[in-house]
Specification:
This protein has 219 residues and is α/β, with parallel strands linked by helices. 45% of the residues lie in helices and 11% in strands. It has ten helices and six strands; from the N terminus they run βαααααβαβαβαβαβα. It has helices at residues 16-31, 37-43, 48-58, 65-82, 95-104, 118-125, 148-156, 171-179, 190-193, 208-214; strands at 4-7, 108-112, 133-135, 164-168, 183-187, 198-200. A six-stranded parallel β-sheet has the order 3-2-1-4-5-6, with helices on both faces. It is globular and about 50 Å long. The structure holds 6-O-phosphono-beta-D-glucopyranose (BG6) and magnesium ion. Magnesium ion is lined by residues 8, 10-12, 44-45, 169-170, 173.
């Protein structure tokens, strides 16, 4: 039986995936690095430091660890500044409705994000109240595609993995959910999240009704 839901944040609850893209693009342009949407999509779900390493690998750039850290910090500043204008209006369509519905039906709900800025984003959205537990980029050492953040969140909800459903927009996030033995819903195109148990193009389609209809035997 499914008793809990674990949500990714960026690209699931709100469109910060786009803000992460803009911030990496600004840094890459300043550095003369190539950076496009395809590369950005491969970074969805992975930590800030893993992301900058992947961008540098892609550009065949090698820098001192201290410099890499400074550049990641620079990207973060651009990203955090871009959160300034975020309000309660900035949920992805369908996300707030799903969270509300789950709370009303008594499901346990956790956040399982790789972002160290997750609490800040949830505060901007006034979304803290929907969660029994908030797992973010500070919670576990190994980021997605390792299953650690989801396993930790499930433990906090006092549920085994197979009683939880993970909602993710990232290829690496679905990898993480599967590696941890979770049921999972992918949000996005087939090429990115087609390996989820169930996939929707957007959050707007991911209603509790649709999810329940698919996982009939589990509700
Ligand atoms: C994930 C995003 O949720 O968080 C990634 O999908 C991002 O794009 C990662 O790099 C880390 O975020 P932050 O806010 O700690 O830099
Ligand atoms: Mg995401």
């Amino acid at each position: 039986m499914i008793k809990g839901f674990i949500f990714d944040l960026d690209g699931v609850i709100t469109d910060t995936a786009e803000l992460h893209f803009a911030a990496w693009k600004e840094l890459s342009d300043a550095m003369g690095w190539q950076f496009d949407r395809e590369l950005n999509d491969s970074l969805r779900g992975i930590s800030r430091m893993d992301s900058i390493k992947a961008i540098m690998d892609h550009n065949k750039v090698d820098l001192e660890p201290g410099q890499v850290g400074e550049l990641a910090e620079r990207k973060n500043k651009i990203y955090v500044d871009s959160l300034e204008g975020m309000t309660e209006q900035d949920y992805l369509p369908g996300a707030r409705e799903l969270l509300t519905h789950l709370r009303n039906e008594g499901f346990a709900v956790a956040l399982g994000s790789s972002s160290k800025n997750a609490v800040k984003v949830l505060q901007r959205l006034n979304a803290i109240r929907y969660f029994d537990f908030i797992g973010d980029g500070n919670t576990v050492a190994k980021s997605k595609p390792a299953p650690d953040i989801f396993l930790y969140a499930a433990q906090q909800l006092k549920l085994p993995a197979d009683q939880c459903l993970v909602i993710e927009d990232a290829e690496k996030g679905i990898d993480a959910a599967r590696a941890g033995g979770f049921h999972c819903v992918g949000i996005g195109p087939e090429e990115r999240v087609g390996h989820a148990d169930l996939r929707f193009d957007s959050m707007g389609e991911a209603t509790l009704f649709e999810v329940k209809s698919h996982f009939k035997d589990l509700f």
